[in-house]
Amino acid sequence: MTTSFFKANSDINKPYALMDLDDTLFQTQRKIDAWDLPTTERETLVCATVNKQDEPLSFMSQRQAIFFNWLLASTELIVVTARDRSEIKRVKLPFDSWQVLTHGAIILTSDGALLSSWQQHMYSKLAPLQDKLNQLSELFTSHSQSEQSHLVFTPHIDSFNNGSTDEELTIYLAIKHAQKDHQALVDLAEKLPTLIRDFDQDFYVHVNANNLAILPHAVHKRHAVQFLLEHHLDHQRPSFGFGDSLADLPFLQLLDWYGMPNHGQLHEQYQSKSSG
């Protein structure tokens, strides 16, 4: 066996960096204050996203901005986010590689086109669940319209190709609480399996801060990342990534290295286990 030793090489083969966005690379002012993040003086914040009225919404600290700039220069940065195709347009950062969107239901190529093979795969998984997703949508729509309700309900819909034509399909359902009552969302999540037959067989629920998502099992960041790793990314190139939520961990575990910011759901889960 011949032993070889490491030699520095300035001809860098960039690793892949698969990155969650919200609360990992940037966050709202409310969360900046809650987490007491460093280098977040108002005059030094960098706007990362805008709201529907084109007003600044989320910001990077100086440390996050330096980190993001390093990622752009030294890696092939791949977005992995719950944001859908309209929401990602409100992120005012440069991306030029693959984008995994809508919790993994959508994959965009480097030129912004839909990855057709993944589209057709997702169509085959989502089409049989449309009746149940529509049934849940009707329940939440009627409930959110009542005066006592503080729930804000949003179905996430996109176009999928079935091999011959495009069809609009509901991907998943999102619920927020108007008064940001996290416990109310946790309580709702516990009641969801009683709403329709075989709920657990077809869906899973993810709750993080003021976001509750009802997702088909086929829709997951892990599934989309695994598809990219197996069919489109160079197996010789290393990969690493970061994410802040429990929903990120399964896709991160597919990579060579992964980590989390020192704030957010994953960090809090780790802290509670360590202290316990």
TrEMBL record:
UniProt KW Hydrolase keyword: yes
Range of residues in the leader sequence: none
InterPro entries assigned to the protein according to its UniProt record, in alphabetical order: HAD-like_sf, HAD_sf, TPP-like
Pfam family, one: Hydrolase_3
KW Hydrolase (keyword) present: yes
UniProt keyword terms in alphabetical order: Hydrolase
One MF term in the entry's GO annotations: hydrolase activity
Listed name of the protein: HAD hydrolase family protein
Species per Swiss-Prot/TrEMBL record: Psychrobacter proteolyticus
Classification of source organism: Bacteria, Pseudomonadati, Pseudomonadota, Gammaproteobacteria, Moraxellales
